[in-house]
Queue: 4 jobs
Job 1
Amino acid sequence: MASDVTLELLDREEVMTVECEQDLTMDQLLVTMADICHISPVARGLFAFKQAGRWLPPSHTVSAETGALQLRLRYKMPDWRSRDRASNLKNVDPKAFQYFYSQVRKDFDCGLVCNKKVAGEKDQKWWVPIIQPGARDKREDRLIELNVNMLELVGRNMAIDVMDEVIDKKEVLKNVKSYIPKDLYSGLEKMMLVKMLQANVEGYVDKLLKAYQPTMSSMQIKDEFLKLTEKFFPTYFCESFSAQYDEGGRVLEVRLVVSPPSEDKQVTLTMVSRGEVDKTTTVATIDQICNIAVHDPTS
């Protein structure tokens, strides 16, 4: 028996509806969707389907009650910190790299990279930030730093849109507000940021275009956007899960955070206690994670 499955591919605006057999697995569906997105078999294993905030396992089957599925790059490759060196994914599979940029860019615009609200976790404010360096800095200092970071990221997205001929340079400069992440700023803070961007972004975009337009490709500047996003907002690339921790008979609510690999750091599993976002405990490295036995409380 077949059923219609709604699929959101992040490298395009339209949503797809595909007729699938109900016993089709996510792994089998991934092969089809990767072909549609021109993602090679080499990079295909980095992708997975997400539904309503939950990652679906490869063995999960399509069923009549399945909601919209979103194809996302889940497993980030370790990368160089230097912006002068091309990312590994860009070298391995340019199409997968383009898809990853589209994914992060869409999340950035929607306010999911850096947001005062955490979708689906508004009642758990102690999760935000999970691991955020400088969390105790003065609010004014953090806002100044955030605005400088926004100029670098917003300016790059503007330059990318001009180079990819999505929009004309004159028009892109008129639409500064549309490049600011959703729900990131309050009314006055947003007005101040828009004023700062309008005063500086034209010269910044001109500088970027002068440097990158002769190459006739926006790939390098997209690579820089991804690296800067990870530098400014590292927790966006982490995965976190609710858990309970038994501390001498006292059960505590904690968050388990899986941090992605980088040039000089392997994947780690970290525990964050409620109300102590600045205090973390490393539970295991990637080598140790492979040997973790999950305890089933029902057994």
Note: The two ends are 35 Å apart (CA to CA).
Job 2
Amino acid sequence: MCSKIVAPPEVYSGVSRCKNAILLGIMCLTAVYGAVHYALKDSGSYLPPAEEYCTSSNQNICARPDLFAFQIGSGIAIAYCGVMGFVTWHVTQSVYSKLPSTPEGRLFGYLRESENLAAANFTFQLWDFFVSLAIPEHATPVLLLHHAAAALVSWFSLSFQVLHYYGVFFLGCSEVSSVFLVFIDLARYFPPSAGSPFDRFISVCQPAFFVTFGWYRIVLWWKVSFLLWKDILYVLRSGRAEELRPGKSFCLYIYLFLNVALGLLQVFWFGIILQEAHKVLSG
């Protein structure tokens, strides 16, 4: 969690308050990844990966501790962001009670929960980007660009203290579906035995992922995005953006571009999810 020391009004950046938390987060995620990777380095005999993920020429001793360790590390970060976003948006509803319901309030108001989310998401995306470079399955251009874009918007929110209302949704609530995806991917990499407790657990995660992805990353994504565009265009045209964040208006244009780009990516991914769901239902 970021330091509770309040910066003077003329200092917008939250980086100074969160730098220690960011460094600690990166070290903790790396420590978890390293510990799990080391513990499972010879796990081929009791935790064999699916054949398609086996990089060893000898299938009997194939082990992929990197895939398992990555799921554990990323799962911790995703769960933190998803739960905090869900609680702040739906339970405590701090985005409504602590921020003015105006374009200026939603874009430039301060919300500690959102600042913590921005720091956590930046930490995770930065860590994810560099660890993914060492894992072939994760080092795809699309995934790496996604991590870079998410890290960038998190950095802007943290550094310039902007979009705290929207940060709760895009950096928090949108990760709710990813909590289920962590387990689904784990089962894809390391298929459970049919009828096992983990196999039954995955049968629950799959529909939960489908519903939460469709709700948060498709339906609500575009609904919240419409309000985001409306607010940003207002503060840009009225001059309020430069008045409240002098010299920082450029980041709002980047937000608009990445909002559409990432939104279209969600639609693309949902199309793939629908195809997979159809395969399962059709037998």
Note: The radius of gyration is 20 Å.
Job 3
Amino acid sequence: FWAIVSDVDLESEKIRWIGEIRFHLWAFWMVFKLRKYRGTFKYCGEEIKNKDQQLNSVQEEDISRRIEEEKKEEGEVQETQEKEYDFSYFSVNNTKFAGAGMNNAPLSKIDDGHMDIVIQEGDEVGRTKVLKFMLNFEEGQYFDNNGDINSRLAMSYKKAKNFTLKPDLDFLPQNEDGSPDFDSQTFGWYSIDGEKYPPCQVKGATINKGLAVT
């Protein structure tokens, strides 16, 4: 996770003693403060417009050859789409559930060779749309009665083979040498399984059916 939801997860530790309701209380506080998180996002894949949308068929490549090619490329991913965003929400999943009762990637299939990336972004996304999204994302209620992405949520749902996320670090305090001072930063961190990681560039890619289970 990154953006508001990661701040909710990490910062609400201050009131952990009140139980699970801490997430909801801190979420309302974050909606009131309405921080924006600028960054560049690239991905190779498809944007989902309807929950019944079928992905374009991709011919399976030889797994061993793909692994060797990726080693030669030293982990570089090949992106086909790029955009700079003002994020309110960003998550990457390979399963439907990110936690108990949190079905935030309802179209995810662990064996479809894609990561499910959910984004809420936009320069003009205000508190109302952020609040609507926060009230719906835990149950993955992103779709209207026709199965289309709900336009009122100002969000996008992507199926990606690979991606790169590069947060804009201009909002970070700086050390004397001009480098980002992560130690003094209090918000905008990644939350990975509840753990805190600095908002540096991150890349991800899938190797479909790369692990044989017998």
Note: The chain has four helices and eight strands.
Job 4
Amino acid sequence: MATWVALLALLMLAVCLPSGRCAPVTLFASNFHEAVRGKNVLVTFYSPGCIICRNMMDQFVEASDIVEAKGLNVTFVLVDLLYPENEPFVDAFDISKFPHILAMRKNRVVIAHYTGPRSTQDFVELAEKLPRATKKSPLFKPFVNPPPHSAWNYFVYRLYVLYYLLYTDYFYLKAFKKNVMVFFFLLGMLCAFVLRKTMIYFRRRRAAHAKQD
């Protein structure tokens, strides 16, 4: 049982992370307010099928690694808006296209829609300026009755997204080939494990029926 749980957890990591690194935090409508409360955060709202989002993702992740290495008090956050449970963000932040990048300082939006250049250095410089931002805006309040987040639903959703993108876009496979290889390797191990347990189960059933006869 423990082996099966470990394999499933590794499989979920391979599916859910947008790259081999994990510095940005993936949040949902149900835990967003609690996770960003009192912090300096740079948030990217994206869609897995958005080509611009995919091209920008490596720079965003690299910037997150650099900011973390520098010890800056800024958290990089990713929110997948194609995921149904994240629909409340669209109205809350007036999101009309992807990627939508905003900055928050201590629960106040200081940059509602960042439209500047999106290189790694640009994101790092934006993060360095964020702790000193002073724009006055209303406090961001928690969503009222946000859809509950389910890890299993998100796992199934990411499987669907992975299948869709691999089926429709060869460049996605090239960009994320490391994660894809890890995913299929772990999926194969999981299938082999389930098959082995199924065979053992049926052998025991046959043995039990043979004893009864």
Note: Helices lie at 2-16, 32-36, 51-70, 88-92, 120-129, 151-168, 170-175, 177-212.
